[in-house]
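Regression test case RT-17, inverse folding.

Input:
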């Protein structure tokens, strides 16, 4: 209590609990504002199970991994957790088709459940690791997608592919997004345009 003549002033120190509640209230207000404002900062992740669905044929049109990775994937069976598919290559080297299994995953370590946007791919016979493939962006109701692809076990690298459902063509936005990713990663000069043969 401080005294100045006839007046008395009472000073209350803020307890740690009250301070914590005040900070929490401020945080919740900011979060509510971001989520409900016209500018959402919540990243929307893609659902790879909608791209690698049963009976889908998926054609690689552009790749930064060389002509040897031009291919068509034919999905023979899929559910919300995985997909079985055969991968046929288009290149002159005539690589043998591969029977693969993609286990759908996410590695974003968020608190709540989210859509699975990537897959760990293994050879069906023997279970040998083959690749890690993540769906970064989709367009036109999951008919065009931008994939990050790594053949390294630690999922490193900077390779991208543009894949479409058989019989469709990428729109300008899909192609532009592919170019944006490859330029950002410094691999645009490595882009190979695959031949039209779909296998």
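Golden output:
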């Amino acid at each position: 209590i401080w005294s100045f003549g006839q007046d008395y002033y009472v000073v209350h120190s803020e307890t740690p609990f009250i301070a914590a509640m005040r900070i929490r209230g401020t945080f919740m207000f900011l979060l509510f504002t971001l989520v409900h404002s016209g500018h959402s900062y919540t990243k929307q992740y893609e659902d790879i199970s909608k791209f690698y669905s049963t009976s889908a044929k998926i054609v690689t049109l552009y790749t930064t991994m060389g002509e040897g990775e031009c291919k068509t994937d034919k999905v023979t069976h899929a559910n919300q957790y995985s997909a079985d598919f055969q991968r046929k290559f288009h290149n002159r080297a005539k690589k043998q088709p591969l029977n693969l299994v993609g286990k759908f995953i996410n590695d974003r370590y968020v608190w709540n459940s989210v859509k699975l946007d990537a897959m760990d791919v293994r050879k069906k016979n023997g279970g040998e690791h083959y690749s890690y493939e993540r769906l970064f962006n989709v367009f036109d109701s999951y008919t065009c997608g931008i994939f990050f692809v790594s053949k390294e076990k630690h999922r490193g690298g900077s390779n991208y592919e543009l894949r479409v459902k058989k019989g469709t063509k990428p729109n300008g936005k899909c192609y532009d997004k592919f170019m944006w990713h490859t330029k950002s990663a410094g691999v645009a000069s490595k882009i190979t345009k695959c031949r039209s043969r779909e296998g």
